[in-house]
Design goal:
The chain has about 280 residues and is α/β, with parallel strands linked by helices. About 40% of the residues lie in helices and about 20% in strands. The structure holds adenosine monophosphate (AMP).
């Protein structure tokens, strides 16, 4: 039977008991409103760890002014059932007050690799992600933490933080789970009207075109960006924020694909901001 905890003390007690039994622990951080993408992370964690903790927390520090903190969809009972079905043992569902002292003074600033891509339009986002993820790592003390490639820059940022701050855990990246028509699953897809939902399929078609070109041997990043933009340009409802090919190491744009890259896009469909990407290693 799955358990739910709303306090840090409860989580520590539960994890402490597992540790005394010699169990390994996996963590899947989420903002809730779970779908098959989240469930794939939980299932992977359950396959690799004895016990899985899922956090469900709409983290205020990673939202900027005017973003969708208030309207972000929430349904905890449904989330609990999905966590159980996917094999989690404990769901940590704290209030913002439980997570953040009113006079908290400590921040984490992720320089350089948080400045490109989504960092340009969401300047506080990755510092907020790092803060909450670091806190969750300290609360849950997992052996491994599972993140989706859907949020590719977040995955690279978390890996960098774990390296820089010596967190004793493994970061596991998991592939993007998509709808039947290709749209990457996202809690934010619920914001889309029927017309917008149809238009949103352009993201995955653009990503497929870019990947196919890279796989055919194209090494000029501007040619890849061009192919992706060409597909996006056919959709009148798509307002492109960025199309970039960056180094997986530095998250800086590259001209030629000579080492592992991330091709990432952010597109507004109506007022909803959607992202998609592919990783590509020319040596693989
Ligand atoms: P979120 O609740 O959106 O913060 O996402 C929590 C975790 O689930 C993050 O590591 C995401 O990258 C991951 N995730 C979200 N959507 C997907 C998806 N479609 N496929 C795989 N992982 C996902």
């Amino acid at each position: 039977m799955i358990e739910a905890a709303s306090t840090i003390a409860e989580v520590r007690e539960r994890v402490g008991a597992w540790r005394r039994e010699g169990k390994s622990v996996g963590l899947v951080p989420t903002m809730g409103y779970l779908h098959e993408g989240h469930q794939s992370l939980i299932e992977r964690a359950a396959a690799e760890c004895d016990r899985v903790v899922v956090s469900v927390f709409v983290n205020p520090t990673q939202f900027g002014p005017g973003e969708d903190l208030e309207s972000y969809p929430r349904d905890f009972e449904r989330d609990l059932a999905k966590c159980e079905a996917a094999g989690a043992a404990l769901v940590f569902h704290p209030t913002p007050e439980e997570m953040y002292w009113p006079d908290r003074s400590t921040t984490i600033h992720m320089a350089d690799i948080s400045e490109e891509l989504c960092g340009k339009s969401r300047p506080v986002h990755f510092d907020g992600v790092c803060l909450v993820v670091a806190k969750l790592f300290n609360i849950v003390t997992p052996d491994a933490a599972y993140f989706g490639e859907k949020d590719a820059q977040q995955l690279l940022v978390v890996r960098r933080m774990v390296r820089d701050l010596n967190f004793p855990l493994r970061v596991v990246g998991c592939p993007i789970v998509r709808e039947a028509d290709g749209l990457a699953k996202s809690s934010r897809n619920t914001y889309l009207s029927p017309d917008e939902r149809l238009a949103a399929t352009v993201l995955s078609r653009a990503i497929r075109a870019g990947r196919a070109l890279a796989e055919s041997g194209e090494r000029d990043a501007s040619a890849i960006r061009g192919a992706v933009r060409d597909v996006l340009a056919h959709e009148p409802l798509a307002d492109v924020e960025y199309v970039e090919v960056v180094s997986q190491e530095t998250v800086r744009p590259v001209q030629r694909i000579e080492a592992p890259v991330l091709c990432a896009i952010a597109v507004r469909i109506g007022t909803t901001r959607l992202i998609d990407n592919f990783f590509y290693d020319p040596a693989a």
